[in-house]
Design a protein that fits this description.
alpha+beta, 3 helices, 8 strands
């Protein structure tokens, strides 16, 4: 994947110095840099520092790379829930709107034979006393170490996604 991205971005990027580069060239430089370890690549520092500074300005638009048909960056701070868990919301506002999908939840059998510690498999029923063997457990949703992503078309014409962070 990285070779394909490097090929597509290198065609469009030219020089990695963005001080006077047009926006599309700068966007290709940014795409190339975020596809790897930009913090450890000195030639990526000028375009990335320019990006980080520009993000603080009003009216900022993410630079894109037309040659790679790249998207503007998006941010998704939460990672997927583990297998068997579903995404849930921690709160619902007074108007019925949901908050952030920041919880993972799953149901499990809560009835055990206390003599041997094994689960007792009973059908879940809504008995008159409200007792049920099912219980719901939840946990905070894992956070991504690389919360930003950009989508692009690689050299084989396939849509790809690369994840990155903007930590300096």
């Amino acid at each position: 994947m990285t070779k394909s991205l490097l090929y597509a971005a290198a065609i469009a990027a030219g020089s990695l110095y963005a001080s006077s580069a047009p926006a599309s060239e700068w966007g290709c430089q940014v795409l190339l840099c975020v596809s790897g370890d930009w913090q450890a690549t000195p030639s990526c520092h000028p375009p990335m520092y320019r990006l980080i500074a520009a993000m603080k300005l009003p009216g900022f638009f993410w630079p894109t790379c037309p040659d790679a048909n790249s998207s503007a960056a998006r941010k998704d701070v939460y990672d997927d829930c583990p297998d068997g868990w579903t995404v849930r919301y921690s709160d619902v506002g007074h108007d019925g709107s949901r908050s952030k999908p920041n919880m993972c939840e799953k149901s499990e059998n809560g009835c055990f034979d206390h003599r041997n510690g094994r689960p007792i498999f009973k059908p879940v029923t809504n008995r008159r006393d409200g007792d049920s063997c099912q219980r719901t457990i939840s946990m905070p949703r894992p956070m991504r170490s690389k919360p930003w992503y950009v989508e692009y078309i690689d050299a084989q014409g396939l849509r790809q996604r690369t994840w990155f962070n903007l930590n300096i």
